[in-house]
TrEMBL record:
<dbReference type="InterPro" id="IPR005685">
    <property type="entry name" value="IHF_beta"/>
</dbReference>
<dbReference type="GO" id="GO:0006310">
    <property type="term" value="P:DNA recombination"/>
</dbReference>
<dbReference type="GO" id="GO:0030527">
    <property type="term" value="F:structural constituent of chromatin"/>
</dbReference>
<dbReference type="GO" id="GO:0006355">
    <property type="term" value="P:regulation of DNA-templated transcription"/>
</dbReference>
<dbReference type="InterPro" id="IPR000119">
    <property type="entry name" value="Hist_DNA-bd"/>
</dbReference>
<dbReference type="GO" id="GO:0006417">
    <property type="term" value="P:regulation of translation"/>
</dbReference>
<dbReference type="InterPro" id="IPR010992">
    <property type="entry name" value="IHF-like_DNA-bd_dom_sf"/>
</dbReference>
<keyword id="KW-0804">Transcription</keyword>
<keyword id="KW-0238">DNA-binding</keyword>
<dbReference type="GO" id="GO:0005829">
    <property type="term" value="C:cytosol"/>
</dbReference>
<dbReference type="Pfam" id="PF00216">
    <property type="entry name" value="Bac_DNA_binding"/>
</dbReference>
<keyword id="KW-0805">Transcription regulation</keyword>
<keyword id="KW-0810">Translation regulation</keyword>
<comment type="similarity">
    <text>Belongs to the bacterial histone-like protein family.</text>
</comment>
<dbReference type="GO" id="GO:0003677">
    <property type="term" value="F:DNA binding"/>
</dbReference>
<comment type="function">
    <text>This protein is one of the two subunits of integration host factor, a specific DNA-binding protein that functions in genetic recombination as well as in transcriptional and translational control.</text>
</comment>
<comment type="subunit">
    <text>Heterodimer of an alpha and a beta chain.</text>
</comment>
Amino acid sequence: MTKSELIARIAELNPHLYQRDVERIVSTIFDEIASALARGDRVELRGFGAFSVKHRDARVGRNPRTGETVSVDAKAAPYFKTGKQLRELLNGGESV
């Protein structure tokens, strides 16, 4: 599902809301999640999952084509861990 499909689905389920308002709401939610992760915070949506940032230390890697050693800088990567309800839904448990 793409962001535009999500917006269309929410607007369809909530006919009392204008599509432009739904688009603003969805964009605000995504922006707030991104801002929280950029600050190093953790975002938890109960039953769905938790977004956090994993920090990876600098290391020495290897170029697979040439075999030459290459230094890889430290970096931060977003990480998502599914919630219990989502895992159960995906594994044939009770539906939400």
